[in-house]
Amino acid sequence: MQGSRAAARYAKALLSLAKDKDVTKEVNEDMSLISNTIKNSSDLQAFLKSPVVKNTMKKNALSEIFRSVNGVTSGLFSILIENNRLDILPLIAKEYNRLFDEMNGVQVAKVTTAIPLTPALEAKIQQKVKELTGHEAKIENIVDESIIGGFILRVGDIQYNGSVSSQLTNLRRELQNNTYVAKI
């Protein structure tokens, strides 16, 4: 992904600055807010990427939209505008969240399901993840209808595939290798 290396460097520098000022948690909340706001607004995405819109206008808009953010976060806006890198702000926000979680020992459990998770299922998955790894994890739900049913759980290096499509593939493979069924 274009800009991801630069985003990682900015996020590391931001985390370092936030540590020095003892505001890592506040900046993490700001980065979550920024990431979600930009992700959910195609107009804001287009506005930030537009070469026609002047940088002062972008800075004013960000200051107005994210009024309640920490001073460290608003300083990031200024640096990104000065370096003409405002387009990677969402990547920086995501990377900062990841680095913050890593620093605090929080893992991300990616759960792929055919339908969105309910809060009850999310709680069961959280319990299973804690049982497998011994740590809590943030649940990230990915909806993929092609798995038909069941789920695929990824936590760090561990992957458990309990999807219906995987079971059907395994069954098909077993039936193809069975000499009695193959002759029919």
Automatic annotation (TrEMBL):
Q: What is its main location?
A: membrane
User: Which residues are listed as membrane-spanning?
Assistant: none
Q: What is its membrane topology? A: Peripheral membrane protein
Q: Which UniProt keywords apply?
A: ATP synthesis, Cell membrane, CF(1), Hydrogen ion transport, Ion transport, Membrane, Transport
> What InterPro entries does the entry give?
ATP_synth_OSCP/delta_N_sf (IPR026015), ATPase_OSCP/dsu (IPR000711)
NCBIfam families xref list: ATP_synt_delta (TIGR01145)
What family does the entry list?
A: Belongs to the ATPase delta chain family.
**Which PANTHER family does the annotation name?**
ATP SYNTHASE DELTA CHAIN
Query: This protein is called what?
Result: ATP synthase subunit delta
